[in-house]
Amino acid sequence: MRRALCPGSFDPVTNGHLDIIGRAAALYDEVVVAVFVNQSKSSMFTVDERREMLQDETRHYGNVAIDTFEGLVVDYCRAHEIPVIVKGLRAVSDFDYELQMAQMNRGLAGIDTLFMPTNPEYSFLASSLVKEIAKWGGDVSSLVPPDVFTRLKERTSAG
Ligand code: ADP
Questions:
Q1: Which ligand 1 atom sits closest to the C-alpha of 36?
Q2: Residue 77 falls inside a structural domain
Q3: Catalytic residue positions?
Q4: 84-114 per-position pLDDT tens digit
């Protein structure tokens, strides 16, 4: 069985993430989407909320599993016998950092990384930007799934 990992913060999941997850799901038998638990980074949604949103938005694929992890991505890969990480590339600016990480991960653990160019429609899209726009009442309905949009509205109007 060919398995791949899509790691990230997913705070919250965007249409850009889902584009990559969906395309990876078409290439691999199983895709594990792992939500990175980073205690020091302040987030808008809890890990459970992020996991729940991902579960709702990927259920229809049938071969996407959602999990959470703390620590090194390569340790997660090794523990779960996943040989490859799939990453979306938005722009050249992503490349420097991603290349460094991919080479480090291969050096550390022999885990390969495959880069998938984002759909140009989403090349400017990042969770941080979506949160910033939503905080100020901007319309992000075309950038995230409808249920995520509702949650963002609830969270930003409550805060
Ligand atoms: P961000 O906060 O920048 O959205 P995440 O850590 O949640 O970042 O993203 C996890 C991974 O998802 C990224 O490393 C990247 O591979 C992919 N990704 C994020 N946004 C996009 C996008 N708009 N298009 C394609 N891939 C993306």
A1: 6
A2: yes
A3: 17, 41, 90, 127
A4: 999 999 988 889 999 999 999 999 999 999 9
